[in-house]
Amino acid sequence: MALVTFSNPDFKDKTVYAVAGSHTETLLKLAKENKIPVQFDCQDGECGHCLVRVTSIDEKDRMGYFLTDKEQTVLKELGKLTQDQIDQLHVDDMPSEWRLACQMIVRDEDILVEY
Ligand code: FES
Fold first, then answer.
1. Does residue 25 lie in a domain region?
2. pLDDT bracket for residue 108 (50, 70, 90)
3. What spacing in Å lies between the alpha carbon of 85 and ligand 1's midpoint?
4. Strand locations in the chain (E)
5. Domain containing 22 — which CATH number?
């Protein structure tokens, strides 16, 4: 069970439980289920509207994560990641802080999601 806290300066923070066992639930799906107004459009990792910043609020180390090619492309277009940073994330096996909510699968870790 993961605790996901959604935060936006225009809204009250909201913390929800995520059942992280299925490895299929995206952050966007979780937000929609909980009526959290994360913006979105394509829901397919192409438009970049669902850009969020994700940080761990867990005692544990971050879990490794590999960005899909689609997500890398959009994050580069949005100016959130450079190719050098992407290469380094691969070497370190660390997730990027910037993510697309429609592409990010919720894992078993407590996170803060700024949208
Ligand atoms: Fe378009 Fe996520 S909704 S990239």
1. yes
2. confident
3. 21
4. 2-8, 11-18, 51-56, 98-100, 111-114
5. 3.10.20.30
Phi/psi-derived region of residue 93, left when phi > 0, alpha when psi is between -120 and 50, beta in every other case:
left
Tell me which H or E stretch contains 56.
strand 51-56
pLDDT tens sequence across 17-51: 887 666 678 999 999 999 999 999 999 999 999 99
Q: In terms of residue numbers, what domain contains 14?
A: 2-63+97-114
Per-residue pLDDT tens over the stretch 2-24: 899 999 999 999 999 887 666 67
CA 89–ligand 1 middle distance (angstroms): 21
More confident call, 109 vs 80: 80
Residues within a 6 A CB radius of ligand 1: 40-43, 45-50, 74, 100, 102
Count of structural domains, the chain: 1
Residue 75 covered by a domain:
no
Q: Is residue 35 in some structural domain?
A: yes
